[in-house]
């Protein structure tokens, strides 16, 4: 049975924050534009599996790589 599970692909996404902006502002944005998010740099991030929240984590930077360390599994996933 483990062989079947190992072939299942899951899309993992990490939500750093959210922002709501008017469409006209979005259309005027170009390269280098900054979108302000509703979070601080030390706030936990939300980890999604196939667009469903499964955990909270924190951003980890190792050299030129960016990763996420899992802090807490959300209810129903532990």
From TrEMBL:
State the signal peptide span: none
Keywords assigned? Cell projection, Cilium, Flagellum
Q: Which residues, by range, are in coiled-coil regions?
A: none
Q: Which SUPFAM superfamilies match?
A: Surface presentation of antigens (SPOA) (SSF101801)
- Which InterPro entries does the protein's record reference? FliN-like_C (IPR001543), FliN_T3SS_HrcQb (IPR001172), SpoA-like_sf (IPR036429)
Per the database record, which ranges form the Flagellar motor switch protein FliN-like C-terminal domain? 5-74
Gene Ontology biological process terms in this record: bacterial-type flagellum-dependent swarming motility; positive chemotaxis
GO function terms (MF aspect): cytoskeletal motor activity
* Top-level lineage group: Bacteria
Q: Name one GO cellular component term.
A: bacterial-type flagellum basal body
Q: What family is reported?
A: Belongs to the FliN/MopA/SpaO family.
From the Swiss-Prot or TrEMBL record, give the protein name.
Flagellar motor switch protein FliN/FliY
Q: Which organism is it from?
A: Rhizomicrobium palustre
């Amino acid at each position: 049975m483990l062989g079947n599970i190992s072939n299942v692909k899951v899309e993992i996404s990490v939500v750093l924050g959210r922002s709501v902006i008017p469409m006209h502002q979005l259309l005027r944005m170009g390269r280098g534009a900054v979108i302000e998010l509703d979070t601080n740099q030390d706030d936990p991030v939300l980890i999604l599996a196939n667009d469903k929240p499964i955990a909270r984590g924190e951003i980890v930077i190792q050299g030129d790589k960016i990763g996420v360390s899992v802090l807490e599994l959300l209810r129903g996933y532990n």
